[in-house]
Amino acid sequence: MGFFKILARKMPGLKLKLAQARLHQDTEHYVKKTFNTALFLSFALLIIAFTFIKKPGILLFFPIIFVFAFFYFLKYVDVKIEKMKRNINQEVIFAGRFLIIELESGVPFYNAFINLSKNYEVTGPFFDEIVEKVNLGTTMEEALNEAISTTPSPELRKLMWQVLNSMKTGADVANSLNAAIDQIVRQQQIAVKEYGRKLNPLAMFYMMIAVIVPSLGTTVLIVLATFLGLTIPLPYLLIMAGIVGFIQFMFFAIIKSARPPMEI
């Protein structure tokens, strides 16, 4: 247990990341689980490889495979945070406008947070946590402070900051929220324009590398094989098809990840 505790202390930002990802476990447990998963995967891969290759020297690759697998699984919390950010950014504007309507209608903050948590699937749980902390005796300001520190989305954090500042200063929260939402909308519009500029070269590279080159290359290879009297084994053709499919999958993954997470 001491080893995992020392290892967890070497990652000071991991505790905050776990809180932002809503993974309710301490850093030591997370590091231990990641370590064991990487260890199991490394042994499994080496056993499978040794079954086919049957050379003891392959065991020398164990440290490399283990280190790669450990850091790969350690990034799971970052991947989860990024996914949560994208999901939050898709509805943060609508949630903010809903909150403005509630507050302008004279609904108290507490009830407005309850209504918001019931109507929005992604941003709602963050406000539901605030309500639960208030029910347990925490003040609204303290609950908002804690939510701001563990919110993975900067956009949602801006809205919460505006609400918290309005509580402290007594300013009109609707005007502050409207200004924050307008800023988020402008940022998302800029992101859409940047995505459009990135999409054109990506589409060109996709047509060249994933469509034109494989098609012409396969045709030329078949023609040359016919003239030279060569026979192309079926496994080679299947490998080529697999490579082309992998390239296309990578392009689709890049395009999807570059798409701005919003629905305006």
* Biggest beta-sheet profile: none
Q: Which residue ranges are poorly predicted, with pLDDT under 50 across at least 5 consecutive positions?
A: none
CATH topology of the largest domain: Receptor-associated Protein
Please give the radius of gyration in angstroms.
26 Å
By DSSP (H or I, 4+ residues per run), the number of helices equals 11
What do the pLDDT scores average to? Answer: 83
What does the oligomeric state look like here? single chain
- What's the domain count? 3
Number of separate strands: 0
What percent of the residues sit in helical stretches (DSSP H or I)? over 70%
Strand content: under 5%
Order of helices and strands: HHHHHHHHHHH
Shape verdict? flat
Name a few traits of the molecule:
264 residues; mainly alpha; Receptor-associated Protein; 3 domains; 11 helices
Overview of the molecule:
- With 264 residues, the chain is an all-alpha fold.
- It has three domains: 2-74; 86-185, Receptor-associated Protein (Up-down Bundle), CATH 1.20.81; 195-258.
- The protein is built from eleven helices and no strands.
- The chain has helices at residues 2-9, 14-20, 27-53, 62-74, 76-104, 109-119, 124-135, 140-149, 154-169, 173-228, 234-258.
- Helix 7 packs across helix 8 (140-149).
